[in-house]
Amino acid sequence: MKTINVNLDERSYPIYIGGSILSDKELLKRHITSNQILIVTNEKVAPLYLEIIEKNFVKFDCEIFILPDGESYKTLDSLNQIITKLMKKKFSRTCVLVALGGGVIGDLTGFAASCYQRGVKFIQIPTTLLAQVDSSVGGKTAVNHPLGKNMIGAFHQPHAVLSDTSVLKTLDYREFSAGLAEVIKYGLIRDENFFCWLEENIDLLIGRDSDALAYAIERSCINKAEVVGIDEKEMGYRAVLNLGHTFGHAIETSLSYKEWLHGEAVGCGMLIAADFSKRLGFLEQKQFNRIQLLIEHIGLPTKIHKNVEFDQMLENMKIDKKSRDGVLHFVLLKNIGEAFLTSDYSEKDLKEAIKEYFC
Amino acid sequence: MKTINVNLDERSYPIYIGGSILSDKELLKRHITSNQILIVTNEKVAPLYLEIIEKNFVKFDCEIFILPDGESYKTLDSLNQIITKLMKKKFSRTCVLVALGGGVIGDLTGFAASCYQRGVKFIQIPTTLLAQVDSSVGGKTAVNHPLGKNMIGAFHQPHAVLSDTSVLKTLDYREFSAGLAEVIKYGLIRDENFFCWLEENIDLLIGRDSDALAYAIERSCINKAEVVGIDEKEMGYRAVLNLGHTFGHAIETSLSYKEWLHGEAVGCGMLIAADFSKRLGFLEQKQFNRIQLLIEHIGLPTKIHKNVEFDQMLENMKIDKKSRDGVLHFVLLKNIGEAFLTSDYSEKDLKEAIKEYFC
After folding, report:
1. What is the pLDDT of residues A203-212, one digit of tens each?
2. Strand B2-6 to strand B36-42: parallel, antiparallel, or no bridges (unpaired)?
3. Which end of chain A is more exposed for a tag (fewer CB within 10 A), N or C?
């Protein structure tokens, strides 16, 4: 088992990565400081892992909240249902929420923990690759608004993150490849060596090799933890984590969060961002080709979904959180391993880069 | 004009108190750092003060959101409406929200500011005594849940607070006296001299004497700022600000936030807390009498509203935020000017103290 520390003063916390985390009888309990526990999960994850997690809490006042599966449940209404459950059970401010699931469950549970009685503790047990390398780390929590993704939320750090690589073996390939998009992102934005490692080891990863998985998750979490440690509240540098996300979110919003998984939208979005970087003269064609090749090899979409309309997508981009007083900032690439934030571009180049990815 | 600084490192902010704050053409604008402004207010306050505030923003992208008046609108649904407005107008993370109104508007707007895109700036312009001395200062924001008050919220400090004493002259007496309950609270919990000043000057305050008002607001804000500076997130000491609130909130919840104003419930709640302190041997009868006399003199209720049932009130108290793992902690008084938090009491004494205040 590996432990990575996210260093944020009194909000610091450990990320545990390993192949038998869920069956460890002490690890989870070590971070529980209350008798009142609410496990939040969904209908897909519950049959697989709820029992093993619940076993930790036989003598506790342990409640379960199970949502249907899917991004369309990451809403203010689901949040309200969780709060109602906590209220009905008279859970106090010392209670602990446990998020057992992917990004939707983690983001929603984290936001519920951030605002129930103005903040209670929560623990992340991510069960998808995407959640293990991205959403469970860094304290960004949120629900979606019909007009935009993650628009209602808070920065609220988990108390601990437990990432068991064995859960990835049963993950269906689409979910898995969507997670790989975020793994590649860390290589692209700040870790060229890791990107080279990914190029060499991508087939091991796709084959769910345990050691390769543990290494990829570890490197992803170390990179994310470093960025978050530098800029917890996204005042500046943290924005690099959003490479491809402005495009990706706009695609997702256009699709009403259906059809594509978040990681798929991000994969396609990173390709557009790389193309845009190339058009603006920052990224060399050779480097662009390497990025394109890796994304294609994984099987992530390389064209925008046919249900997205060009004008609609541009409109949706305007509400992105990287917008400042109405001016949209983009995370672009100078090199593989070097991202930066800019608002210095022409609308023409932007539109051309996007148009390229319509079928 | 007086300026009090709330010292919270990078979250520090000024409170301005004076008789002509709203007509000052520079003060508000000095704290505006964006072109996108949303003023949130209600139907009662808008006709009185919206025009003068709007005048500051003729060249801005300034939007208005007007709610009906009343505590029953401090809900997740109102929050969602504000977020929808911000989304539709494509307001970015640099926008500024301005809360123009009493505690309901301040708490709701503050919470909306805390969670829109995970946090935007907001400015408080409190128009009731209660909001000027309490809810606008200290960064507690929230909406109510049908099962409990302020149960969904965040700590989110305002960027500035502008308290104009002239707005209090038109405040109806019930609202005004409800604010006085919180003013008295500061004397009771940590400022004996201020309590003595209140005993001597209460009729000047009731007569809305400008100097007396400014002094009472200033002393209240200084006390609150000191407490918040010591314990921003209510890990311990800040709880003293909740003197009478465990009882008060339970009364309000029993009344579904109707019939009584928050300050009225707190006034009655402080009397019960003082009585409970006396029963437990902490507070002398003579001091209790002084507290009772002042609360009566102001005209605050000294008996629990007839629509509240005893068992219901006890039940509602259990979900209080001062509950820890199911054990209810109370803020009690050792002396006038000295409050403390305890869970060391018998259920019998608690029930007797409460019963005393049923008609």
Report:
1. 999 999 999 9
2. unpaired
3. C
Interface of A with B (CB under 8 A): 34-36, 76, 79-80, 83-84, 87-88, 90, 92-94, 111, 114-119, 140, 142, 145-148, 150-155, 233-234, 318-319, 321, 323-326
Check B83 against A142: CB less than 8 A apart. no
Question: Could you read off the pLDDT of B121-137 as tens digits, one per residue?
Answer: 999 999 999 999 998 98
pLDDT at position A149, please? 85
Which pTM was predicted? 0.90
Q: What is the CATH number of the domain that holds A43?
A: 3.40.50.1970
Residue ending a domain, choose from A168, A197, A214: A168
Mean pLDDT on A24-38:
94
Confidence of residue B324 (pLDDT cuts 50, 70, 90): low
pLDDT tens profile B15-47 = 999 999 999 989 999 999 999 999 999 999 999
Beta bridge partners of A215: none
Q: What is the pLDDT of residue A321?
A: 67
B294 part of a folded domain: yes
B323–A147 C-beta distance less than 8 A: no
- pLDDT at position A36, please? 96
- Active site annotation includes B258: no
Nearest to residue A306, comparing CAs of A260, A263, A267?
A260
pLDDT of A256: 86
Closest Cα in chain B, distance from residue A110 (Å): 12
Q: Are A214 and A306 in contact (CB under 8 A)?
A: no
Q: Which of A140, A168, A196 is the last residue of a domain?
A: A168
Cα gap B2→A357, rounded to integer Å: 59
In the set B42, B144, B242, B316, the catalytic residue is B242
Q: What are phi and psi of B151, to 5 degrees?
A: -85, -15
**Domain containing residue B331:** 190-355
Burial of residue A83, with CB atoms counted within 10 A of its CB: 0-12 exposed, 13-18 middle, 19 or more buried: buried
Q: Which residue of A has its CA nearest to B149?
A: A117
User: Which of B115, B150, B319 has its CB closest to that of A90?
Assistant: B319
Interchain CB distance below 8 Å, B324 and A92: yes
Q: Known catalytic residue: B234? A: yes
Residue B79 Cα, gap to closest chain A Cα (Å) = 10
- Contact (CB, 8 A) for A195 and A187: yes
pLDDT, mean of residues A246-258: 91
- Is the pLDDT assigned to residue A325 strictly greater than 70? no
Say whether pLDDT at A322 is over 70. no
Give the HSE-up count for residue B341: Cα atoms under 13 Å, Cβ half-sphere. Answer: 18
The answer to whether residues A123 and A211 belong to one domain is no
Q: Are residues A242 and A297 in the same domain?
A: yes
CA–CA separation, A280 and A255 (whole Å) = 28
Please say if B118 is a catalytic residue.
yes
**3 state DSSP class of A333:** strand
Reported as a pLDDT band with limits 50, 70 and 90, residue A289 is very high
Separation CA B245–CA B158 (nearest Å): 23
State yes or no: pLDDT of A264 exceeds 80.
yes
Residues A233 and A316 occupy one common structural domain: yes
Q: Which residues contact B126 (CB under 8 A, 6 or more apart)?
A: B99, B101, B102, B103, B106, B132, B135, B136, B161, B162, B163
Residue of A nearest to B328 (CA): A92
Cβ <8 Å between B319 and A93: no
Cβ–Cβ gap A83/B326 under 8 Å = no
Q: What is the ipTM of this complex?
A: 0.89
| Annotated active-site residue in B25, B88, B90, B118 | B118
Q: Which of B76, B92, B234 to mutate to test the interface with A (most CBs of A within 10 A)?
A: B92
